[in-house]
Hints:
Layout: E1 14-17, E2 23-26, E3 43-48, E4 52-61, E5 64-74, H1 81-84, H2 89-109, E6 113-118, H3 120-124, H4 128-139, E7 144-145, H5 148-158, E8 169-175, E9 180-186, H6 195-200, E10 217-224, H7 228-234, H8 241-254, E11 271-276, H9 278-287, H10 295-298, E12 302-303, H11 305-325, H12 337-350, E13 356-359, H13 363-374
Parallel strand pairs: 3-6, 6-7, 8-11, 11-13
Antiparallel strand pairs: 1-2, 3-4, 4-5, 8-9, 9-10, 12-13
Helix pairs in contact: 2-4, 5-13, 7-12, 8-12, 9-11, 9-12, 11-12
Amino acid sequence: MTPERPAGAGAPSTNRIGPVGSVVASTQVQAPRHTRPTAPKLYAALDLGTNSCRMLIARPLGAQFEVVDSFSKAVELGTGLKTSGLLSHKPMQRTLQALRICRAKLEQHGVQNMRLVATEACRRARNSRDFIRRAQRETGLRLDIITAEEEARLAVVSCASLVAPDTEQLLVIDIGGGSTELVWIDLSRVTPEKRRNRILGMHNGRFIRDALPGQPHVVDWISVPLGVATLKDYFCEVEDDAARFALMSWYFEEQLEAFAPYRDATAHKGFQIIGTSGTITTVAASYLRLKRYDRNKVDGLVMNSDQVDSVIREYLALGPIGRRQDPRIGRERHTQIMSGAAILTALMRIWPTDRMSVADRGLREGLLYAQMSGDDALDLEA
């Protein structure tokens, strides 16, 4: 299995919701007819991944946005994909039902500005184009299958506000269901007060590898086709819990050999890791001993490698039954938390750091920032 560096994403399309069973493609943003001219427009972002179908509806609010409605459902679209190379019937049925709920929410709020995307499972499946056409026919929603580069770029954009002022070398990691994206960015040529806006601007176009004055320099990036679902499937026949975890972690590390910063043992000044994924937010919630998940406490939390390692050792000590019963992990995540933890362990082993920022954000937030920035709807001076 070879990590990919796609040529780049095409120009993003904008969807206008039309009559049931249809979506009209448009290159112009359409203002909702039922809202007052002075009211902020609503934007939607939908992320159909290997495991989940998730959507946010939000309005611009200063330099950020305010979430109006959300949806998340574990559809496990990638089930069986490793062996057959195809999206299977039952996962597709679950996904279509989730998309119908999303369609109803979009209609309820009168959303006209949206970006609906599919990621790794649809990138890999031989029948994904047929499924996308069926989804449009049956739900009225047209999804774009985006490249791994655009997915990585939008994950970086979503994390802009978490970049510390003294960060000069930034590694953003996004652990998904079917793939893991890593982006290493050199910010040393950008003045601290401009770093957030410069990173937000990365949504437009491809990664810039040239070291330009005043601009973020993408040293390297990689998309490893192993996420919490796909990595788990590779080692599902290993019965011993600890042995399976160790094998997953070392196997993932082997896939990073082509990633240039992996081979660089130089100590970097102002190095920061930002991690965005359900795995990382779950580890953070477990570290905080939260009885109920609280995004305000998790998003932006800084953890070091010892703290991450302590939580993961606790997961191992619990075993499969204990993890299933642990309310901090949740019944939807307990079967895949150790594959995600194996990926995180490998990354923290390679780049031990006292500053890993936890991001409860990702592709959906990046999609929203990209749309709003493209419309000049954000007050970036706020």
